[in-house]
């Protein structure tokens, strides 16, 4: 059996969706899922689902029995009665939230040695999402602020995946993946940067500039300026420069190459010598590298 929370709440067994009952029964199930393999007392269940209404405590046993009936033909899911309350016994691989975390962790390990394998793992992780976390459940009725949503982790994973797709040459997949993300949140500089890189690699310089303007305007509403890399990518698109990507971190800059010259012309990088000596020694001097960071 599989419980799905990365989107609307669903339970599946052998290709069939399991009916989960009315809204309040679903609230009880979600509380047990969020505390999987840990006991939850009847008092606590009542407080979470019904707030300060202890009269509802008598409903808990009825909903537990209905859930047990719903899962009676499933051998790998049990709701156990414990001295301290009820416990939903379920394997980690039966929860899409746990599988998402595992796939992300495996991708992180594989990223250096086998980036293509990391792409496969992240695609599987991102593919588990069908919408917002428990999007059809009133979070206030299953724990409220105590519930930690993995929605931000989803966006991080999308960014990690798109970044790897660009690095491995699949810039069109990255482009298609990030367009709706940046459209929904144009102030996300990380996603905008990767999208701009993918568009630049695809030769769509007009779209690069359009993304930059959208992100710049969204950031302006927050009183924030676009970062160095975003400005540099937009400038390259406007000037029609080659489509090879800028390094992802300023530490990668070494020497007065075309990229360095561009940053100098943009006024965002100061390469004046800090120490005197042999000709152009400031280009590889660690002090120059520190000064580049200071202007970011």
What is the topological layout?
Elements: E1 2-4, E2 10-13, E3 16-17, H1 23-34, H2 42-50, H3 57-70, E4 78-82, E5 85-89, H4 96-110, H5 115-127, H6 151-167, H7 171-184, H8 189-201, H9 205-221, H10 228-239, H11 258-266, H12 286-294
Antiparallel strand pairs: 1-2, 2-3, 4-5
Helix pairs in contact: 1-3, 4-5, 5-6, 6-7, 6-8, 7-8, 8-9, 8-10, 9-10
Family: Belongs to the AfsR/DnrI/RedD regulatory family.
Keywords: DNA-binding, Transcription, Transcription regulation
Organism: Amycolatopsis cihanbeyliensis
Summarize the structure in words.
Residues 15-88 form the OmpR/PhoB-type domain. Residues 95-238 form the Bacterial transcriptional activator domain. InterPro entries: AfsR-DnrI-RedD_regulator, BTAD, OmpR/PhoB-type_DNA-bd, Sig_transdc_resp-reg_C-effctor, TPR-like_helical_dom_sf, WH-like_DNA-bd_sf. Keywords: DNA-binding, Transcription, Transcription regulation. It comes from Amycolatopsis cihanbeyliensis. With 296 residues, this protein is mainly alpha-helical. It has 3 domains: 1-150, Arc Repressor Mutant, subunit A (Orthogonal Bundle); 169-240, no CATH class; 252-294, no CATH class. 52% of the residues lie in helices and 6% in strands. The chain contains 12 helices and 5 strands. The protein has helices at 23-34, 42-50, 57-70, 96-110, 115-127, 151-167, 171-184, 189-201, 205-221, 228-239, 258-266, 286-294, and strands spanning 2-4, 10-13, 16-17, 78-82, 85-89. The strands form 2 sheets. The chain has a 3-stranded antiparallel beta sheet, with no helix packed on it. A two-stranded antiparallel ribbon has the order 4-5. Helix 6 (151-167) packs parallel to helix 8 (189-201) and helix 8 runs parallel beside helix 10. The radius of gyration is 26 Å and the shape is elongated. The two termini are 51 Å apart. The model is unreliable at 245-296 (pLDDT under 50).
């Amino acid at each position: 059996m599989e419980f799905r929370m990365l989107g609307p709440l669903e339970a599946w067994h052998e290709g069939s969706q399991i009916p989960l009952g009315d809204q309040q029964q679903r609230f009880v199930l979600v509380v047990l899922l969020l505390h999987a393999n840990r006991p939850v007392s009847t008092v606590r269940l009542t407080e979470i689902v019904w707030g300060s209404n202890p009269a509802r405590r008598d409903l808990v046993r009825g909903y537990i029995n209905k859930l047990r009936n719903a899962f009676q033909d499933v051998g790998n899911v049990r709701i156990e009665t414990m001295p301290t309350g009820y416990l939903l016994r379920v394997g980690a691989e039966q929860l899409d939230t746990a599988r998402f975390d595992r796939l992300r962790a495996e991708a992180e390990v594989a990223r250096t040695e086998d980036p293509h394998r990391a792409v496969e793992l992240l695609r599987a992780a991102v593919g588990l999402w069908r919408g917002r976390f428990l999007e059809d459940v009133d979070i206030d009725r299953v724990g409220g602020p105590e519930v930690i949503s993995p929605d931000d982790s989803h966006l991080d994973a999308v960014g990690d995946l798109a970044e790897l797709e660009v690095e491995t040459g699949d810039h069109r997949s990255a482009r298609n993946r990030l367009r709706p993300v940046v459209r929904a949140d144009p102030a996300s500089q990380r996603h905008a940067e990767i999208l701009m890189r993918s568009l630049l690699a695809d030769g769509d310089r007009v779209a690069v500039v359009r993304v930059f303007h959208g992100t710049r305007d969204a950031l302006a509403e927050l009183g924030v300026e676009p970062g160095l890399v975003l400005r540099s990518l937009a400038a390259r698109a406007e000037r029609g420069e080659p489509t090879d990507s800028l390094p992802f971190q300023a530490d990668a800059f070494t020497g007065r190459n075309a990229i360095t010259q561009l940053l100098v012309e943009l006024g965002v990088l100061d390469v004046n010598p800090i120490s005197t000596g042999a000709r152009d020694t400031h280009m590889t001097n660690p002090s120059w590298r520190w000064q580049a960071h200071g202007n970011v």
